[in-house]
Amino acid sequence: xxxxxxxxxxxxxxxxxxxxSVYAAPVSTLDSTAQVTFIPNDQPSGPLDPNNPDPTNPxxxxxxxxxxxxxxxxxxxxxxxxxxxxxFGKNKITTTDETYYAEVQKFTDGQGNTTxxxxxxxxxxNTGEDKGWVLSVTQQGDLTDNKNSxxxxxxxxxxxxxxxxxxxxxxxxxxxxxxxxLEKGQKKLVMTATANSGQGTWxxxxxxxxxxxxxxxxxxVPGKAVKHAATYSTTLNWSLEQVPTNTPIK
Length: 250
Prior knowledge:
The protein is built from one helix and 15 strands; from the N terminus they run H-E-E-E-E-E-E-E-E-E-E-E-E-E-E-E. The chain is mainly beta. The longest helix is centred in the N-terminal third of the chain and has 14 residues, at 2-15. The radius of gyration is 32 Å and the shape is elongated. The termini are far apart.
């Protein structure tokens, strides 16, 4: 009789949709943590390929005016890694206005292969501070042969464009203008990163966007300028500054 009652009760619970409680074993829990710390990187950052910047494949640019120029000594965490020098070639003296173009940038890769790309400037921000920065250039003086100036000559950087490492999560800096005409003693803004942008390595290239690389840096020489059979040169001073307010430089 007892057995029959028990089976009936179980059957009735199933019919009514009543679920029997199941005993749960106690669960023991404990939290742990995981963390990582980053510090500013004060090591130099080598030049990268202006066609395809890749930090795992640095390159060695060739200075057309000083092939034996030593490597850039600038260290981080905010560093100006490389700036192309410009060579406008050997040209016949004329009495007409002329425009000459700088040679493209030559460099060798890690396998010793020589190739070319646009002239460029490279900067790296490994500060971890997100303050932003400003890149500018100043032509220190007229083009001279150490005695005479090349009056009225103007160097212009055309088709300025920004190139970064593929896949970077940082917001790109911006160029000041597509064409930058240099003036003696005048600081010209080239590229700027506002706060919370421009982290990592960035290149300002002249060419490879709207113009061919060999037409992107020009030297205009007026026909009326007196030209001697000599080499004329000047110094371009590139400057990278951390400027929190990013006050525009004209």
